[in-house]
Amino acid sequence: MSLDQFEDERDAAIHKVRKRVIETIGRNMDLYGISQSTGHLYGLLFFADKPMTLDEMGREMKMSKTSMSTGVRTLLDLKMVNKVWEKGSRKDLYEVEYDWYQTFTDFFDIKWRKSVESNIQILSKSIDEMGRLLTEYEHDPEFTELLRKDIAKLHEAVAYYGWLDRLIDTFESGEIFKLVPKEPPTPHN
Amino acid sequence: MSLDQFEDERDAAIHKVRKRVIETIGRNMDLYGISQSTGHLYGLLFFADKPMTLDEMGREMKMSKTSMSTGVRTLLDLKMVNKVWEKGSRKDLYEVEYDWYQTFTDFFDIKWRKSVESNIQILSKSIDEMGRLLTEYEHDPEFTELLRKDIAKLHEAVAYYGWLDRLIDTFESGEIFKLVPKEPPTPHN
DNA sequence: AAGAACGTACAGAAAAAACTGTACGAAATT
DNA sequence: AATTTCGTACAGTTTTTTCTGTACGTTCTT
Predict the structure, then answer these.
(1) Nearest-angstrom CA–CA distance, A146 and B91
(2) Which of A78, A98, A118 is the last residue of a domain?
(3) In the 8-state DSSP scheme, what is residue B50?
(4) By residue range, what is the domain housing residue A148?
(5) B163, B172, B186: best mutation site toward chain A, by most A Cβ within 10 Å?
(6) Which tens digit of pLDDT belongs to each residue from A117-141?
(7) Residue B46 to residues A153, B70, B104, B157: CA-CA distances in angstroms?
(8) Up-side HSE of residue A143: CA atoms within 13 Å toward CB?
(9) How far apart are CA A9 and CA A23, in angstroms?
(10) How far is Cα A114 from Cα A160, in angstroms, rounded to an integer?
(11) Backbone dihedral angles phi then psi of residue A81, each to the nearest 5 degrees
(12) Mind telling me how many Å the CA of A165 is from chain B's nearest CA?
């Protein structure tokens, strides 16, 4: 009985600290386009001593299993958590990807890359079409002026997305760590 | 009358192309944590030939002036649009920041930086507290093991956020453009 | 000084997103 | 083959966000 009491005391102490961290992580997860509660779930998995099942998550989060299922899938899509195999258990087990650098680069590769490429495609197509209008209305100086301005803007946008694409390349290839090393440079004087 | 007809035809042609681009931009703006319609507003401003007033935006977007006001403020906070001064007019005028590289780096400086710093602060504090628990329960091997694991995780997290902080520094200083130039490297063989 | 035009605070309505419970198909166990 | 256990699709509910109209303070105009 008194043993339990000690355990409760210990648990409460560590739980309090964990909780604050989990909530901080959860709150800031909106940068990744993730809802607060899914971020919270991520925080939970971050501290879990072992891979968790959906039921365990639901119990800890005091939420339905359905929500856990959709939350985990969101995190899985972003490769923020991994599915873990464990013989014996026929439940699905999940744990966070502890390599946060990897998580960061994956995020850009998954979310941003998709936008970048679709944007470049649409923009290029639009440049072509405006070019066609340019020849079609070449004797209309007022209108061609308008078109020229738009085309110039679109070209700049394409150039920017090209840059973004190359930036994401350096994330994915790990080249970025040459410019910004994981270990901060030690000041030597 | 026939002149008007020509104008309509031209306008319709350019409008169709613009519309598609605007919608593409708007759709992808969720990466910046911006709602679709505010993204749409951004797209509108992108093509505007001149700085626009709230009333003009409302007319084009077919939305209330209030919405324009809040939308513009969101974009202003992210420095995606700028307030423009024009003597004579006493209305507020806005135009997009056409330097998208600047917009990109500002975004990280504004949104991510805030998260990074608050996270580092909370995490450090939590490491301290867990360290205190470590000495308090030093004769409880099972519990200290738990604490040690948590502390290790927290240290890794702090290291990651430190890296992120330095990465954002390179965005802000423009150093990133040394690694990833705005002009793509020309292949010379 | 009075009036008009502007931007936004605020409260309520509309729309979107998150969450839950039930139901069901798939896979493992008996 | 029957039964149990699992994960998720789906419909309905709750919560959150977005949008609108009115009202009001401020700043120009007259």
Answers:
(1) 25
(2) A98
(3) S
(4) 101-179
(5) B163
(6) 999 999 999 999 999 999 999 999 9
(7) 8, 18, 15, 39
(8) 21
(9) 21
(10) 15
(11) -130, 155
(12) 10
Is the same domain home to B173 and B107? yes
Q: Give the residue from A118, A17, A52 showing the smallest Cα distance to B143.
A: A17
First-to-last C-alpha distance (Å) of chain A: 59
Q: Does position B181 have pLDDT exceeding 80, yes or no?
A: yes
Q: Is residue A35 part of a domain?
A: yes
Residue A184 lies in a domain: no
The helix-helix angle for A36-47 and A65-77 (nearest 10°) equals 80
Domains in chain A, number = 2
What are the C-alpha distances in Å from B45 to residues A186, B20, B138? 46, 14, 62
Of the residues A81, A98, A115, which one is the last residue of a structural domain? Answer: A98
Residues 43-72 in A having a C-beta less than 7 A from any atom of strand D are 53-55, 65-66, 69, 72
Is B54 a domain residue?
yes
* Average pLDDT over chain B, rounded to an integer: 93
Question: Which chain A residues 128-187 have CB under 7 A to strand D?
Answer: none
Residue keyed to tokens 């702090």? B158
Looking at the DSSP bridge assignments, the partners of residue A83 are A94
Closest residue (CA) to C1' of nucleotide C28 is A90
Q: From the CA of B114, how many Å to the C1' of C15?
A: 30
Categorise residue B43: left if φ over 0, alpha if ψ from -120 to 50, beta otherwise: alpha
Residue A132 within a domain: yes
Q: Are residues B21 and B106 in the same domain?
A: no
**Confidence class of residue A185 from pLDDT cuts 50, 70 and 90?**
confident
**Interface size between A and B, measured as CB pairs under 8 A:** 129
pLDDT tens for B139-151 read: 999 999 999 999 9
